[in-house]
Every structure is written in structure tokens, then in C-alpha cells.
Amino acid sequence: MSSTLNESSDGDATPSQYPFGLSSRQLFVFVVIIGLLGPGLVVYTLEQGNYSGLADFVWIVGYGTTVFVVWYIWIRPLDFVSPAGLDLEADEGETSGDDEDD
């Protein structure tokens, strides 16, 4: 393999766009392990020790942070436009006015 190859094994053109220089798949596994299993195990341990109030706090902060990280890394960059890139809301307003004139 050449050292000048900038693509990762899963097809990402720029592997440096994700935190820690990980690919998208590696980062997903990291988020699942740390963001889902970590708080789950801590909450279970706290519940077993009769610290239910602290367990609730850890659950909210742990899973809330995981949801935010998933949104920030994978969902926020998505661009939801029509295939042609047209502004459909502007087109709808123009066609409804034409029907009333007939």
C-alpha cells in the first residue's frame, strides 16, 4: 500500500474529518462502547448500590450526551434538499396562485 493514499478502507475521502483521526465505522464503534455501554454499566452499578438518584442523573447525562454526539457528527452535516437542488417551497407558492386566476 502506498503511504500517499488518502482514502480509508471504508471509502471516506478524508479520514481526518472525524475526531481522533478515526474512520466513520471506528468512531461509531467507539461511540457505542463509550456512549451506550459505559453509562449502562454505571447506572446498573449505582442501582445495585441503592443510589437511584445518582443513577438517574448518570442515565440522563450519559445517554443525552451520546444522542448529541451522534447528531453532531452524523446527522447535522446532512443536507436535505431535493435531488435537483430546487427550492420546493417557493415552487408550491407559485403554482397555487396560478390555479386561482383561471
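Above is the first protein from milestone M3; the second protein from the same milestone is given next.
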Amino acid sequence: MSLYIDFEPHSWYKGFAIRKVDDWHQNTGVTLWVGLVDNGNTYQVDEVTGRTLKELKKNITSYRSK
């Protein structure tokens, strides 16, 4: 199964398509970085988030080491 995403990612990191999302959760003004990856075990898209790009990459590394 291939990952289908409906946006052009800002970049890729360890297989995750990364994008910056402004005004997340009903226009609160919170900005999050989101990483999406195709989970080959369940055939679903897994999402990892972080408030900064550095935090997102740390969370992705933790996700990959599970």
C-alpha cells in the first residue's frame, strides 16, 4: 500500500511526510508540525505531531525505535 496524502509536504524525514499546520484545533492560533507515514502493519496512516520541527523529529525518532 502506498501513502496517499492530499497536500504537498514541506519535506520528508525518516519516511514521514512533514507539513506545518497553522491554526490547529478550531483556530486557536496554535501551530503544529505534523508527520504522516503509511503504517504497513495496519494499512492506516499514522500521525506524529510536535510544536516545533525539532520536537517533531524527536517524536518521529521515538516512533521509529518502537
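Note on the second protein: Helices lie at 24-27, 53-64.
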